[in-house]
Amino acid sequence: MKKMLLILFFLHALGIIYLLHELGFRCNFTDSMPHGIYQIVPGKPDRHDLVTFSLAEDNPYFQISLERHYLGLNGNRPLLKTLAGLPGDSVEISAEGVRVNSKLLPRTKAKTCDRHGRQLPIFLKSTVIPSAKGLALSTYTENSFDGRYFGLVDMDQVRRVIPILTFKIGG
Length: 171
Hints:
The protein is an alpha+beta fold. It has one domain: Umud Fragment, subunit A (Ribbon), CATH 2.10.109. The protein has helices at 2-13, 16-22, 62-67, 147-150; strands spanning 25-28, 35-40, 50-53, 79-85, 90-94, 97-100, 103-104, 127-128, 133-137, 153-154, 159-167. Strands 1-2-11-3-4-9-10 form a seven-stranded antiparallel beta sheet. Strands 7-6-5-8 form a four-stranded antiparallel beta sheet, with no helix packed on it. It starts with a helix and ends with a strand. The relative contact order is 0.23.
């Protein structure tokens, strides 16, 4: 695994990561989803699809996210999540987690603080998802920065992705 990290570091240093991004590839080094390379694919995103998007600058969480580096060190890094809710779906927030159409989604119990002890405001509310909006979550890990916190996303900004190469770092 150390070799893979070293290769990725050199690719990044050579600007290859930027080139891959311009060609529709997304590299994920966060724990929200499996680490690796994902590719944007054509088609309208549907429930349970992996998706990528950038947090809109008018989102109430945008400035907090930049200050706390939730969106990367260099600004508004695209996020990688699962599309958990579509327009017309019922979303319920409880102490147990997030329910979509009455189904409790795994690992969606909201945290009150981030890993540095800073309060995590929660903008997602129980609602019926309006047209042109979607709910993007990570059910891969409970520590994801996702729709539990920043709320719904604009569907016209969401793109489907598929995994090209994923790997596990560490244990």
